[in-house]
Amino acid sequence: MYCSKCGALEDKVIDSRPAKDGKSIRRRRECVACAYRYTTYEQLEQTEVRVVKRDGRSELFDRQKVLDGMQKACEKRPVSHAQIEEAVDEIISSLEAGLEREVPSHTIGAKVMEHLHTLDEIAYVRYASVYRQFEDLGEFIDEIQLLGSRPKRSTLQPDLFKP
Protein backbone atom coordinates (compact mmCIF):
# COMPACT_ATOMS: atom_id res chain seq x y z
CA MET A 1 0.00 0.00 0.00
CA TYR A 2 1.48 3.36 -1.02
CA CYS A 3 1.67 6.07 1.63
CA SER A 4 -0.58 8.91 0.50
CA LYS A 5 1.89 11.49 1.88
CA CYS A 6 5.37 10.33 0.79
CA GLY A 7 4.60 7.46 -1.62
CA ALA A 8 6.68 4.87 0.27
CA LEU A 9 5.58 1.23 0.01
CA GLU A 10 6.43 0.06 3.52
CA ASP A 11 3.87 0.46 6.27
CA LYS A 12 2.73 -1.33 9.39
CA VAL A 13 -0.75 -2.07 10.58
CA ILE A 14 -1.49 -0.40 13.92
CA ASP A 15 -5.13 -1.40 14.37
CA SER A 16 -7.52 -3.73 12.55
CA ARG A 17 -11.25 -4.11 13.18
CA PRO A 18 -14.45 -5.17 11.39
CA ALA A 19 -16.45 -2.46 9.63
CA LYS A 20 -19.79 -2.20 7.80
CA ASP A 21 -21.46 -5.02 9.76
CA GLY A 22 -18.51 -7.35 9.26
CA LYS A 23 -18.52 -7.01 5.48
CA SER A 24 -15.17 -5.21 5.43
CA ILE A 25 -12.10 -4.66 7.59
CA ARG A 26 -10.86 -1.24 8.65
CA ARG A 27 -7.09 -1.05 9.03
CA ARG A 28 -5.18 1.83 10.60
CA ARG A 29 -1.70 1.99 9.06
CA GLU A 30 1.49 3.93 9.70
CA CYS A 31 4.11 4.65 7.05
CA VAL A 32 7.55 3.35 8.12
CA ALA A 33 9.36 6.14 6.19
CA CYS A 34 7.48 9.28 7.36
CA ALA A 35 5.28 8.01 10.26
CA TYR A 36 2.12 9.34 8.53
CA ARG A 37 -1.04 7.48 9.65
CA TYR A 38 -3.89 6.60 7.33
CA THR A 39 -6.88 4.27 7.14
CA THR A 40 -7.62 1.60 4.54
CA TYR A 41 -10.61 -0.68 4.07
CA GLU A 42 -10.58 -4.24 2.76
CA GLN A 43 -13.63 -6.02 1.48
CA LEU A 44 -14.39 -9.26 -0.27
CA GLU A 45 -14.24 -8.98 -4.03
CA GLN A 46 -17.59 -9.98 -5.47
CA THR A 47 -17.73 -11.90 -8.72
CA GLU A 48 -20.22 -10.60 -11.23
CA VAL A 49 -23.35 -12.64 -11.83
CA ARG A 50 -24.74 -12.33 -15.33
CA VAL A 51 -28.35 -12.98 -16.32
CA VAL A 52 -29.12 -14.82 -19.55
CA LYS A 53 -32.41 -13.45 -20.89
CA ARG A 54 -35.05 -15.42 -22.78
CA ASP A 55 -33.81 -14.08 -26.12
CA GLY A 56 -30.22 -15.17 -25.37
CA ARG A 57 -28.82 -11.77 -24.41
CA SER A 58 -26.63 -11.59 -21.34
CA GLU A 59 -26.50 -8.67 -18.91
CA LEU A 60 -25.18 -7.94 -15.43
CA PHE A 61 -27.47 -8.93 -12.58
CA ASP A 62 -29.30 -5.87 -11.30
CA ARG A 63 -30.57 -6.08 -7.71
CA GLN A 64 -32.83 -3.09 -8.31
CA LYS A 65 -34.77 -4.90 -11.05
CA VAL A 66 -35.59 -7.79 -8.71
CA LEU A 67 -36.50 -5.37 -5.92
CA ASP A 68 -38.72 -3.29 -8.24
CA GLY A 69 -40.53 -6.40 -9.52
CA MET A 70 -41.23 -7.65 -6.03
CA GLN A 71 -42.34 -4.23 -4.81
CA LYS A 72 -44.72 -3.91 -7.76
CA ALA A 73 -46.23 -7.34 -6.98
CA CYS A 74 -46.60 -6.45 -3.28
CA GLU A 75 -48.10 -3.01 -3.92
CA LYS A 76 -51.03 -2.32 -1.54
CA ARG A 77 -50.45 -5.66 0.20
CA PRO A 78 -49.51 -6.22 3.87
CA VAL A 79 -45.85 -6.88 3.05
CA SER A 80 -43.24 -4.54 4.50
CA HIS A 81 -40.34 -3.09 2.57
CA ALA A 82 -37.99 -4.84 5.03
CA GLN A 83 -39.51 -8.23 4.17
CA ILE A 84 -39.00 -7.58 0.45
CA GLU A 85 -35.41 -6.41 1.05
CA GLU A 86 -34.70 -9.55 3.08
CA ALA A 87 -36.15 -11.77 0.34
CA VAL A 88 -34.02 -10.02 -2.32
CA ASP A 89 -30.92 -10.48 -0.14
CA GLU A 90 -31.71 -14.20 0.20
CA ILE A 91 -32.15 -14.53 -3.56
CA ILE A 92 -28.82 -12.79 -4.20
CA SER A 93 -27.07 -14.93 -1.60
CA SER A 94 -28.35 -18.11 -3.19
CA LEU A 95 -27.22 -16.92 -6.64
CA GLU A 96 -23.76 -15.98 -5.38
CA ALA A 97 -23.44 -19.29 -3.51
CA GLY A 98 -23.93 -21.17 -6.78
CA LEU A 99 -20.92 -21.98 -8.91
CA GLU A 100 -22.43 -20.56 -12.09
CA ARG A 101 -21.59 -17.00 -13.11
CA GLU A 102 -24.32 -16.95 -15.77
CA VAL A 103 -27.82 -17.62 -14.49
CA PRO A 104 -30.91 -17.99 -16.71
CA SER A 105 -33.60 -15.38 -16.01
CA HIS A 106 -36.16 -18.13 -15.40
CA THR A 107 -34.08 -19.36 -12.43
CA ILE A 108 -34.22 -15.91 -10.86
CA GLY A 109 -37.93 -15.63 -11.60
CA ALA A 110 -38.57 -18.99 -9.94
CA LYS A 111 -36.68 -17.88 -6.81
CA VAL A 112 -38.70 -14.65 -6.70
CA MET A 113 -41.97 -16.57 -7.04
CA GLU A 114 -40.91 -18.97 -4.27
CA HIS A 115 -40.27 -16.06 -1.89
CA LEU A 116 -43.48 -14.27 -2.89
CA HIS A 117 -45.43 -17.46 -2.26
CA THR A 118 -44.26 -17.41 1.37
CA LEU A 119 -44.79 -13.64 1.77
CA ASP A 120 -48.18 -13.09 0.13
CA GLU A 121 -50.21 -15.30 -2.20
CA ILE A 122 -51.85 -12.38 -4.02
CA ALA A 123 -48.41 -10.86 -4.74
CA TYR A 124 -47.33 -14.30 -5.96
CA VAL A 125 -50.22 -14.50 -8.46
CA ARG A 126 -49.56 -10.91 -9.61
CA TYR A 127 -45.90 -11.67 -10.26
CA ALA A 128 -46.69 -15.03 -11.90
CA SER A 129 -49.17 -13.38 -14.28
CA VAL A 130 -46.48 -11.06 -15.62
CA TYR A 131 -43.56 -13.49 -15.40
CA ARG A 132 -45.38 -16.35 -17.11
CA GLN A 133 -47.16 -13.97 -19.50
CA PHE A 134 -50.73 -15.11 -18.83
CA GLU A 135 -52.89 -14.66 -21.90
CA ASP A 136 -56.37 -15.26 -20.52
CA LEU A 137 -58.47 -15.73 -17.38
CA GLY A 138 -58.12 -19.52 -17.57
CA GLU A 139 -54.40 -19.32 -16.86
CA PHE A 140 -55.14 -17.19 -13.78
CA ILE A 141 -57.68 -19.73 -12.54
CA ASP A 142 -55.27 -22.63 -13.13
CA GLU A 143 -52.53 -20.87 -11.18
CA ILE A 144 -54.87 -20.07 -8.28
CA GLN A 145 -56.03 -23.71 -8.13
CA LEU A 146 -52.39 -24.85 -8.07
CA LEU A 147 -51.69 -22.32 -5.35
CA GLY A 148 -54.47 -23.76 -3.19
CA SER A 149 -53.05 -27.29 -3.39
CA ARG A 150 -49.42 -26.25 -2.83
CA PRO A 151 -48.28 -26.12 0.81
CA LYS A 152 -46.76 -22.87 1.99
CA ARG A 153 -43.03 -23.24 2.65
CA SER A 154 -41.95 -22.39 6.16
CA THR A 155 -39.10 -19.89 6.39
CA LEU A 156 -37.99 -21.56 9.62
CA GLN A 157 -37.49 -24.99 8.06
CA PRO A 158 -35.53 -25.19 4.79
CA ASP A 159 -36.35 -27.74 2.12
CA LEU A 160 -34.20 -30.85 2.42
CA PHE A 161 -34.99 -32.20 -1.01
CA LYS A 162 -35.58 -30.01 -4.04
CA PRO A 163 -38.01 -31.48 -6.61
Concise description?
The protein has 163 residues and is α+β, with helices and mostly antiparallel strands. Helix content is 41%, strand content 20%.
Largest sheet strand order: 1-2-3
Low-confidence stretches: none
What profile does the largest beta sheet have? Answer: 3 strands, antiparallel
Instruction: Please tell me how large the radius of gyration is.
Output: 23 Å
Number of helices: 5
**What share of the residues lie within helices?**
40-55%
Description:
The chain has 163 residues and is of the alpha+beta class. The protein folds into 2 domains: 11-43; 50-149. Helices cover 41% and strands 20% of the residues. The strands form 2 sheets. It has a 3-stranded antiparallel β-sheet with strand order 1-2-3, with no helix packed on it. Strand 2 and strand 3 (37-43) form a beta hairpin. It starts with 10 loop residues before the first strand and ends in a 14-residue tail after the last helix.
Essential attributes:
163 residues, alpha+beta, 2 domains, 6 strands, 41% helix, elongated
What's the layout of helices and strands?
Elements: E1 11-19, E2 24-31, E3 37-43, E4 50-52, E5 58-60, H1 63-73, H2 81-97, E6 102-104, H3 105-119, H4 121-131, H5 137-149
Parallel strand pairs: 4-6
Antiparallel strand pairs: 1-2, 2-3, 4-5
Helix pairs in contact: 1-2, 1-4, 2-3, 3-4, 4-5
